[in-house]
Amino acid sequence: MKEKDADLVPGFGGLVSRRDFLKFCTLAAASIGLPLSMGAKIAEAVEALKRPPVIWLSGQECTGCTETLLRSTHPTVDKLILDLISLDYHETLSTPSGELAEDAKKKSMEANRGKFILVVEGAIPTKDGGIYCKIGGRTMLEILKATAPLAAAVVAIGSCAAWGGIPSAGPNPTGAVGAQEALGDKFKVINIPGCPPSPYNFLSTVLYLLTFKKPPELDAKGRPRFAYRRLIHEGCERRPHFDAGRFALEFDDDGHRRGWCLYKLGCKGPETYNNCPAILFGDAGARTWPVGTGCPCFGCSEKEVAFTAPIPAQASMRFFTPSGAPYGVDEAGQPRPGGQTLSITPPTSYPPIAPPEGHGASAVTAAVVAGLAGAALGAAGATAIKLGKKEDEGAKGSGTEERKD
Ligand code: SF4
Ligand code: F3S
């Protein structure tokens, strides 16, 4: 039966039914690591809001972060992003351009002083006074410094905005830096690094800001812990092959075709924090993330790895936490929940690879063997993928199912 207009959530253009909206908020709560009961609170807070204005600045970038948001085919994500907030200025998406767009930005900033969310996409060049990126005759550096003090929160989307990303790669001819470095310590920037980042990590952060009027818990690099708490290597579906010593040695060799571990092809999963194996990309089903498609993780969410370490170089297996503490303990030096440390080197003796390898251990089994901490968070991460999907579809795409090779 067609849903009545009264069942549609006002403020969402009549596009989202109340039931879907509540379901979305409940699962978003889980992805942030909150109890499911908080979903109702998120829904209540968001429904009561006048759409908060968002000013979206673009620096040195490829627009990939905007694209990842728009290319998401999740039934509600783009509607929520575009209808939940009032996107008052976005150089790619705004209908007006030139002076009209600049005027709209100025008016919005004046009318919403201290209330708007400032999103920064792209790096900020600082060399030679920042002349390598100018918008409307002003440098990006100047615009950012003038806009940030008026905002309620500053969110850096993508690795370029978080820490410089591609434009900052050596020799960094324009002196490109991230928003935090450009603004200095007076501002706390929320970083959502990735190249591109998961749109769900961005959306969940925005929902958290709108609901609780404060940033989610951040790690030492300014990243929301709910999304960047676990190593890629912990949730990777190829992990059983790593543990068993089954490695692809060349692209398109037998091991690569069979879905074996990509460590020896330069996979940086062992030193990269992100939730890609659980969240996936593009709502296109299981294995739709770099490692799932046969491409080694290049560490796009880690400043010290992506665009710095050579792509074929083998990852460090030292397992440090984002704050630099050894993996088995937290930032305060206390044992992490679950207690165990991970094995720190690939095994030295391997089973024969000639016979068929069978199903092997599931990623879940590997996780248990590895003594993962934060299992509850992992479950929440896996839940996030189900946003807007039927339960069984979500389970298939969790990246934790047994391999069939
Ligand atoms: Fe997965 Fe890469 Fe770790 Fe291998 S090294 S298990 S491919 S994350
Ligand atoms: Fe980036 Fe690695 Fe995920 S390259 S998108 S962190 S798998």
Account of the 3D structure:
It is a single chain. With 405 residues, this protein is an alpha/beta fold. It folds into 2 domains: 50-227, NADH:ubiquinone oxidoreductase-like, 20kDa subunit (Rossmann fold, 3-Layer(aba) Sandwich), CATH 3.40.50.700; 229-350 and 357-405, Cytochrome-c3 hydrogenase, C-terminal domain (Cytochrome-c3 Hydrogenase, Chain A, domain 2), CATH 4.10.480.10. Helices cover 33% and strands 8% of the residues. It is built from 17 helices and 9 strands. It has helices at residues 18-32, 38-48, 64-71, 77-84, 98-111, 140-147, 159-163, 179-183, 199-212, 225-228, 232-235, 239-244, 254-257, 276-279, 363-369, 375-384, 391-396; strands at residues 53-58, 86-90, 117-121, 124-125, 134-135, 138-139, 153-157, 176-177, 189-192. The strands form 3 sheets. The chain has a 5-stranded parallel sheet, with helices on both faces. Strand 5 (134-135) and strand 6 form a beta hairpin. Helix 1 (18-32) packs across helix 9 (199-212) and helix 2 packs across helix 9. The two termini are 42 Å apart. It binds iron/sulfur cluster (SF4) and FE3-S4 cluster. FE3-S4 cluster is lined by residues 194, 232, 272, 274, 276, 289-291, 297-301.
Can you lay out the helices and strands and say which pair or pack?
Elements: H1 18-32, H2 38-48, E1 53-58, H3 64-71, H4 77-84, E2 86-90, H5 98-111, E3 117-121, E4 124-125, E5 134-135, E6 138-139, H6 140-147, E7 153-157, H7 159-163, E8 176-177, H8 179-183, E9 189-192, H9 199-212, H10 225-228, H11 232-235, H12 239-244, H13 254-257, H14 276-279, H15 363-369, H16 375-384, H17 391-396
Parallel strand pairs: 1-2, 1-3, 3-7, 7-9
Antiparallel strand pairs: 4-8, 5-6
Bound molecules: iron/sulfur cluster (SF4) and FE3-S4 cluster (F3S).
Iron/sulfur cluster is lined by residues 232-233, 236, 238-239, 242, 261-263, 267, 269-270, 291, 297.
